[in-house]
Amino acid sequence: MTSSESLCAGEREFRPDVTVAAVVERDGRFLLVEEIVRGQRVLNQPAGHLDAGENLLDAVVRETREETGWLVRPTALVAVYQWTSPWDGRSILRFTFVAEALAEIAGAVLDAGIERAWWLDERELAAHPVPTRSPLVARSIADYRRGLRADLAVLTDLARAG
Q1: Are 67 and 111 contacting, i.e. CB atoms less than 8 angstroms apart?
Q2: pLDDT confidence of residue 4
Q3: Which structural domain range is residue 91 located in?
Q4: Cβ atoms within 10 A of the Cβ of 2, count?
Q5: DSSP line for 100-113
Q6: Does residue 160 belong to any structural domain of this protein?
Q7: How far apart, in Å, do the first and last CA atoms of the chain sit?
Q8: Domains in the chain: how many in total?
Q9: Using alpha carbons only, what angle is made at residue 88 by residues 14 and 68, rounded to the nearest 5 degrees?
C-alpha cells in the first residue's frame, strides 16, 4: 500500500514547503529584507522556496540576489528548521545557511513585494518598528551566534552527483 492509498478520505498528503534562507553578517550587521507578506510589512532573512530542478545552495544564492541585490557564497549550514505557520497552517522545512557577502550588484531590481534590504545589528533588529516575519529570523541569528554549523558536505544532490 502506498502512502497516498493509506490516507483517509478528506486528508491530504503531507508535503511541507522547502525553503532556504541566508544569514549574512558583515561588520557586525545582518542582511535582512523588508517585505510585504499577507498585506503586512515584515523583516526576514533573504529567503524563499526551492525551485524544481534546483539544489539548495543554488537556491539560497538566487534568493539572496533576487531579494537583496547581493551576490553571496554559502559557507555552512546553520540548521534545518521544521515550523508550522500559525497564519495558514503550512508546514515549512527551512534550510538556513551562513553566507559570505561577495558584492552588491549595481542597479539590481529586487523581487516584487520586497521593499528594501537592510544591514542591521541585533540591537537594531530588536528595536526595529517592523516585526520579523517569523520566529525563525531571530532563532537563525541566535543559532549562528552560538556557532551552530554543519559543513556543506552534509548536503548531497544526487541528480548532480553523477
Answers
A1: yes
A2: 47
A3: 17-151
A4: 6
A5: EEEEE-TTPPPPTT
A6: no
A7: 31
A8: 1
A9: 100
pLDDT in tens, 118-132: 999 999 999 999 999
User: How does pLDDT run across 61-104, given as a tens digit for each residue?
Assistant: 999 999 999 999 999 999 999 999 888 888 999 999 999 999 99
CATH number of 44's domain: 3.90.79.10
When pLDDT is averaged across residues 8-24 and rounded to a whole number, the result is 84
pTM (2 d.p.):
0.88
8 inside domain: no
| Cβ atoms 81, 136 nearer than 8 A | yes
| Overall residue count recorded for the chain in this entry | 162
| Integer Cα distance of 22 and 63 in angstroms | 9
67 part of a folded domain = yes
Angle among Cα 92, 95, 98 to the nearest 5 degrees reads 145
Write the burial class of residue 144 (CB in 10 Å: 0-12 exposed, 13-18 middle, 19+ buried). Answer: buried
Q: Is residue 12 part of a domain?
A: no
Strand ranges (DSSP E) for the chain? 17-26, 29-37, 40-44, 47-49, 70-84, 91-104, 114-120
Chain CA centroid to CA 95, Å: 7
